[in-house]
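# nightly structure sweep
# worker-07 picked up a monomer target from the shared queue
# config: single-sequence mode, recycle default, output format = structure tokens
# input follows
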Amino acid sequence: MKNALLTTAALVGAMFLTAGAASAAVITATTPTWQNPQGASVTYSSSGVGNNTYTNVLWGSGSQFSGLGFNPANPPSVDVPVDTTFLLGNLRHYNNPIPGFVDVPNSVDLALATSVAGATPVNQSFLYRFFIDETENARPCAYPSTTPCADRITFSNLDTTNAFVLGSVSYTIALTGFSSDGTNFTNAFISQEGTTNTVGLYGRITAATAVPEPASIAIFGAGLAGLGLARRRKAVAQAG
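# output follows
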């Protein structure tokens, strides 16, 4: 009977979670901001018009500059299925030779302020870090290159606790990879030297990482302390 009761309780719990989960989110707008460059001074700009506007972070000297730009896919608004990879926008690398006396940032953060219809809160910001490996333009090249030498961009999801709530479930947006065709994905964007290279940046709406409540942390700590005390008492008893 006990096993039957446990099975029934688990089934009810699963039904509750399924009922609370959303099948899709409607992303209405995404606004990008570059911030926190590490290792070099940068400038900020924008290029393009309308929905083809890139928000840029640039480094270099005079006409010799490189940098990153991001153009979000929204607007227009779009239904995004939960736990399905979707296009967040296009990442652009302005890859030009940089004078040797100019420092290049090794990383920079991209904040995406996203609006999700019907969510709580409607507006939420998500933070991602992009690592920039600007190589020396001399062979042998570290990455496959048509002209010495290609550079590499990689990423990290900085904070998966920021979330919006739909259907009583907390969701976050996590980066999943780069793709030029929406089918084949990679965690590294190899950008050829002397050109402006663009690749799709893809993400996934997924369950947010839970942040323990202070009371839960205290209870957990008390439990560990109690376990340690019990073990010490047992050791004393055995010694006696």
